[in-house]
Amino acid sequence: MRLRAALAVASLTVLSWPTPVSAAGGWFSTVSFTNQVASSPTSGGGYPVPAGSRVPDAGTCGPGPFNANHSESWLAVKPGTENLVGSSKFFFDKFSTFYMFYLGAHQIVNGTPTGNNQIQGYDCLSTGTQDMPPSWTDTTDPNLDFDTKGRVYQTMLPFNAFWDASRLHPDGEIDVSFSDDLGKTWVRGNGGQPLEPPNSASARQAGHVEDKQWIAVNHIVGNVNQDHVYAAWAVFNGSSNGAGTKVRLAVSRDRGLTFGKAVTISPPSQVSAAATFVYPEIDAVGDLYIALVSFPPNGGPSTIFVARSSDDAQTFTPFVAVATLSTIPTAGLPNTRFRDGIAESFAVSPTWPGHLYLTYEDWDTTLGQMDVKFTQSTDAGLTWSTPAKVNDNVDTPGVPTDQFQPTVASGPGGAVAVAFYDRRQACPNDPSVLAADVGKTNFCIDVSLQAYKDSGGGAVAVPSNRRITQFTWDPEQPGQHLGGLSQYPCAGARDPCPSGRGFIGDYFGLAVSATNIYGLFVSTHYPSGVTADEGGPIYYQQQVLATVPRSALGL
Question: For residue 36, is it within any domain?
Fold first, then answer.
């Protein structure tokens, strides 16, 4: 591998750029913001993939670089500060096309990225063994939350590459790890024991497969359940159409040192047997809410449900149907290879008890485009507002554009924010955009932000979407090769990557502090220091931190 001595992404340059005022197809308001590249090269333990194979060989884990793609992220702000921890996928060495990655952490001090590293405890170097487990080929699905004492937690999904059903068992397990130094060093919680034990079944077989885990921590100072940690995840039994999928929950009442026995909280009598995309959240009085999506086993529209617990997750109210959404009938959005992501995102107010906010993507079958919707509850989830479209783009007739993968966050003082990937702007003529993609519409990506203010009567939109990316980026990057391998991340673990199996991440991070709104998301605009087989830099997916002052939005 040929590496330049200095990597462009390591400079962490702050770029201040107001969004442009534009007519049809653009944004109608401006806001001041900064973009900083948060990802930078690091190293750790990982698995090479042998020539002619799609999966690594057991026992071959070793040291190597994490200087490639960084996709899919989450973000959490330490209460009362402007210090944050981000987490994202760190793809290993040159093996992005084979979907080889571990979760890593991004340290952000006073709003400035200061470094990143692999999360320890799941690879052969940090565990000191090739045994599988405790060593795994991958860790996935970033999620984060802080407690009141500055400890940050993440529910972990370590798994072994299962594309070839004959190798590398068991498939996966659910763990919780925590850090007391803004994500530099991590310790496995629950005494090092999994919350959902490993099993011997491959994901290609009928069996017990964990996925889509999340975390929430009660950081309400003085609350009876202060610093209790709630980890939730889905378990797929491998039967046809996802029937029998269960949502599971475990609680720690000693800051992650131990967890109670996991319980199932999605009975089929209330939601469809295929339920996933579970988000736990804590409101201003310490009540726990669970949002999930229920997918009908035989297809058709899906329904988002929410339930509440007022007794520290011992019991839950019946699930309330919030909204029905249409999913795209294909694996990915039109025009590009990447697959579509998680349908919904959920947040609750730390200021107003029982105020809940939910955003989701909704496929318009008539126009053939994806829109972002928003709904809220001010009575602890009993009733919900009529969903309203969040994206305000005005497309050229006959040329629809997609707005997708929304995320929602809330913060002190009634601030609420929704951010989403946005394809309203045509691909620019820029070195980071592949020549074949320049000028294409409904193709390249920006991030848009919609702010809301909740003064006690519910969240009210601050007029218009705001662009918070300085540069529109090309999701077909990286289009380059290294060592003869495509550098394009592929959830299908193939080279070349099949349509609908490319990967930009299923979601991204958003957090609200007392002073700022922060987003952490993918961009391929910034050249890496890795030289492609074709010459020139590889345009890997990097994690970019956007910072928007709340004062600029009247929040």
Answer: yes
1 occurs within a structural domain = no
Contact 140, 159 (CB under 8 A): yes
Quick one: DSSP state of residue 57? P
- Evaluate whether 515 touches 549 at the Cβ level (below 8 Å): yes
Neighbours of 131 (CB within 10 A): 11
Q: Is residue 2 part of a domain?
A: no
Q: CA–CA separation, 369 vs 399, rounded Å?
A: 10
Q: Tokens in use for 451?
A: 């702010």
Question: Cα–chain-centroid distance for residue 526?
Answer: 20
pLDDT mean over 437-464: 97
The domain of 454 spans 8-553
What pLDDT band is residue 332 in, cutting at 50, 70 and 90?
confident
3-state per-residue secondary structure call for 381-421: CCCCCCCEECCCCCCCCCCCCCEEEEEEEECHHHEEEEEEE
pTM: 0.94
Instruction: Look at residue 125 and tell me if it is in a domain.
Output: yes
Domain count for the chain: 1
Q: Could you read off the pLDDT of 221-254 as tens digits, one per residue? A: 999 999 999 999 998 876 544 457 889 999 999 9
Q: CATH number of the domain that 54 lies in?
A: 2.120.10.10
Beginning with the edge strand found earlier in the chain, give each strand of the sheet holding 388-389 in spatial order: 344-348, 356-364, 369-377, 388-389
